[in-house]
Every structure is written in C-alpha cells, then in structure tokens.
Amino acid sequence: MNNLTTLCVLVAPTINFDDLKDVKVKAGQPFDVKVAINGSPPPTVEWFLDDEPLEPTEDEELLTPSTAKEAQLAVKKADKKHRGKLKLVVKNEHGTSEAECNLVVLGKSTQLSTEIRSYLIVVISRRFRQTGSN
Asked: Which fold has domain 11-132?
C-alpha cells in the first residue's frame, strides 16, 4: 500500500518592493505597472489611487490583469485624473502586504499642433495687415 502525503505550506502575501517605483508618464500615453507577488494561497490584488479603489472599466481604459505571481495595472491613456498616490494591497487568509508609489502624469507636449499653428499664423497675419494698413 502506497501512502502519499501532500505538504501544503501556507504563506502570508509578499510584494517585491523593488518592482514598485514612482511612475512618470505623459498625458495620453499608455502605461502599466507590474509587480511580483507571492503567497499561499495566492493573494487577492487590489489597487488604489489616493485611497480610492481602482476597478477595471468596461471600455478597458483601465485593466488589472493580475495572476498568482504578478500584480498588474494597465491604463490605455494616462490622464491627469490618474495622478496621485498609487497603492497595491495583496491579501490572503494569512496576512496583508501593501506598497505605495507616486503616479505622475505630465502635461501634453507644449508644441502646438499643425492646425493650431496654421490658424495662429493666419490670424496674426490678418491683424498685422489691418494695423499696418492704417
């Protein structure tokens, strides 16, 4: 008769703090944050921005496709509303682990679009002609 024994080690969740660093991204650009996690049983993953929970959106603008070994947050288009303190919380029945970083969304480029530049050139030219002809 064969006796088979299974050993199940239960471990409180952990976060690889080196993976969660401050994030700087330009407005309108996509970004994602990937952080190695561990725990047994596999921990649940929650993301917060300024202590408000971040939930996946129907239009998939914000996704949280996490696995048992990696917590992930993905945003298709960074916006100034995404600025703030980003917090990752992982938990299982044996404990909780948290890590934070800053999320900085930089303003869009200060370069003017071609359309706006063309419009301004026309307006300035017209005004110059009007004042120059007096």
From this structure: Immunoglobulin-like (2.60.40)
